[in-house]
Amino acid sequence: MQDSEKILLAHGGGGELTARLVSEVILAGLGDAALGSLDDAAVLQLAGSGTSPGTGMTRRGAQDKASRGQVAFTTDSFVVKPLFFPGGDIGRLAVCGTVNDLAMRGARPLYLSLAFIIEEGLEAGVLRRVVASIAAAAREAGVRIATGDTKVVERGSADGLFINTAGVGVVPDGVEVCLAGARAGDAVIVSGPIGNHAIAVLAQREGLRFETEVESDAAPLNHAVAALVGGLGSDVHVLNDPTRGGLAASLNTIADASGVAMEIDEQSVPVDSAVAFAAEMLGLDVLTLANEGKFVAVVAESTRESALALLRKGGPRRAAPLRKSASGGSHRPAVIGRVKKGKGVTLLTSGGGRRVLEMPYGEDSPRIC
Amino acid sequence: MQDSEKILLAHGGGGELTARLVSEVILAGLGDAALGSLDDAAVLQLAGSGTSPGTGMTRRGAQDKASRGQVAFTTDSFVVKPLFFPGGDIGRLAVCGTVNDLAMRGARPLYLSLAFIIEEGLEAGVLRRVVASIAAAAREAGVRIATGDTKVVERGSADGLFINTAGVGVVPDGVEVCLAGARAGDAVIVSGPIGNHAIAVLAQREGLRFETEVESDAAPLNHAVAALVGGLGSDVHVLNDPTRGGLAASLNTIADASGVAMEIDEQSVPVDSAVAFAAEMLGLDVLTLANEGKFVAVVAESTRESALALLRKGGPRRAAPLRKSASGGSHRPAVIGRVKKGKGVTLLTSGGGRRVLEMPYGEDSPRIC
């Protein structure tokens, strides 16, 4: 990017433009001050003297060996608009997003930080509702809020409320999941129907009503991941949650990092009919819509049925759910394709055709998380 | 706070109103989902199974026993306006602020997360300058950026650029500094002249010119803390950096947490003459002005001269400074008072009087960090 080039909304979309901003401006500028690619949870070595260098991803998807004493560390900011939407709110997102980033490294999430940037004039009651939702989601995930910060900026300098959470977790001995782990022959699984989160937020923002209300799927994934990894061990090769950029970004990221191709059966991708209808109305491709409570798992082909069975049961809940689960669909996992030799992601369409499923370029739906 | 009450800029000032917002809305809402008071770096237990509960501060200043395997964790958002000012910029602040929060728990800072919220339309060159400054400050502090996130919001929904950093560090065995550690008879030391950061930012924002330009003192304090703690061990009882709310907030926080009184000699508090002049012009009390490269140390009286000597030398630099140090004054430490039995902070004024040095209430100077 040229210095005079302006940063666009599309640079925040989680697609190609985001990758370019991060690599050309942020990573290039940080140089050796950065541990790795920054776009995933990092795995750090803190044991002993604390001087051993971390094993961040030196490039997107570089292999990380997990071993005793490894700590996973991640961060996410949340700027979703509106603050409240069917099935969730900014507080629930702020917990689930960071918990899920840790879970996707196979880590057990333990502690979150919680930082608010508040626009002057926000009502205390709004903040209180958000905090209550954070507390409920933290209990659901089994994490504690360990540290925090609160800033207030003058009216017009922020849009109501932004939240940043960072998270710390521990990678259990022997767990080795990373973006680069997919191998030809593996099965590609998605943990449940996609697109619900983006449609729930967009419908609320635009004041659209559909016959069936679509709820966000925002949910902590750590219990389901623990069940899957606990059952299959090293047969779980890759975990990735399709947030910004959706399933298309997630699959392309995995294929690219692993140096493999993928073939996806469009018909087998679970999509709620209300979501499919809304996406068509809005002219959006459901494969690029953000999710906040689903993940892609690439597993050894021989374990695909066990994987499905484990995901159907879901993970053990550490706490009784405090609210009607918005993730009803998370117990409808499906095998959606397979890993092959080569490169790129091919979609076998419902109509019997084939097309390249590309990495999304910019941003279809800003402020979705 | 009533639900209908609006959050004001003053709620972000680091004084009494901030404390009220945090306790009545945030901590009350989190309940047992919070580990502690959230307003300082937390110290976590991650060793072994990772299930042992952390030893966060259950109330402001609760005692924490440091032991093997303790990890410190903190977060801060930065909303300073303008983004660049004499002696620093938002990027340098974002590194130093979080490094210093870790250092104030006696921790060795190791890794930071880095999250940007960017207003659509920001020039890539501006972000590039900020990232370069982050990299330089990280090298100076000896920390690595381990993970990150980038969000873009539409024009008018944020003011240019906000940054959040979270930090992870390790507490060396045997280090026990906490807000509650001050004992009657201890000496109160400040590591250098105060008020420079706030004056530098305010002057730049308001377009004020003084005969001598005041530079921000933004600097990582971890090396100086390592030197002090390395030399004096458990004779260092409290460390605290006077950021928002300034020295007045810092001293009141310590006195309150430790259940002691303090007597401060106004004349002995180091203040650069240009800062004193500017503060008077602006009608601001220098004792409430934010600093970003100074700290208060409460030490055993018998070690006060050794403490001053160690602070004059400063900490070992891990990397050659990449810029003219903005912290020229950081090597002019001073004993400014003593800890007594009782409660509250008393100022022995230059004129020979006594007055209560109160906890600041709201906010004199918003968007200072």
Q: What characterizes the major β-sheet of chain A?
A: 7 strands, mixed
Strand content of chain A: 15-25%
Strands ordered across the widest β-sheet of chain A: 9-11-8-12-10-13-14
> With helices defined by DSSP (H or I, 4 residues minimum), what is the helix count of chain A?
8
- Tell me the series of helices and strands of chain A, N- to C-terminal: HEEEEHEHEEEHHEHEHEHEEE
Work out the oligomeric state of the chains in this entry.
homodimer
How many strands in all of chain A? 14
Output the radius of gyration of chain A.
20 Å
Stretches of chain A where pLDDT is under 50 for at least 5 consecutive residues are 48-68, 316-330
Supply the number of structural domains of chain A: 3
Structural class by SSE content of chain A:
alpha+beta
Shape of chain A: globular
CATH topology of the largest domain in chain A: Phosphoribosyl-aminoimidazole Synthetase, Chain A, domain 2
Find the biggest chain interface: A-B, 94 and 94 residues
Distance between the termini of chain A: 25 Å
Q: For the record, what is the CATH homologous superfamily label of the largest domain in chain A?
A: PurM-like C-terminal domain
Helical content of chain A stands at: 25-40%
CATH class of the largest domain in chain A: Alpha Beta
CATH architectural designation of the largest domain in chain A? Alpha-Beta Complex
- Rounded mean pLDDT score of chain A: 88
